[in-house]
Specification:
The protein is mainly alpha-helical. It has one domain: Alpha-Beta Plaits, CATH 3.30.70. It is built from two helices and two strands; from the N terminus they run ββαα. The chain has a two-stranded antiparallel ribbon with strand order 1-2. The longest helix has 21 residues. It starts with 23 loop residues before the first strand and ends with a helix.
Length: 90
Amino acid sequence: MALMITDECINCDVCEPECPNQAISMGPETYVIDPARCTECVGHFDQPQCVQLCPVACIPIDPRHVETREQLAAKAERLKAVAAAAATTA
């Protein structure tokens, strides 16, 4: 499952730099999470860092993007491989 940021977001800027997959970015009004990049920190941390740090608890699981822990781990491995490939060609 990917996470999502609700409209309770206060744009405190805490979550974006903590995301190991660069899944969080500024949207039109508040931060947003790209479900194609969100692994809930599986493959990096035991708990989602954005959820741990959010001062207003506005980052729930996105019910539109349900994934198992195994699927999240596979996504994390794919993202790491893409990042490694990009680093070697840069």
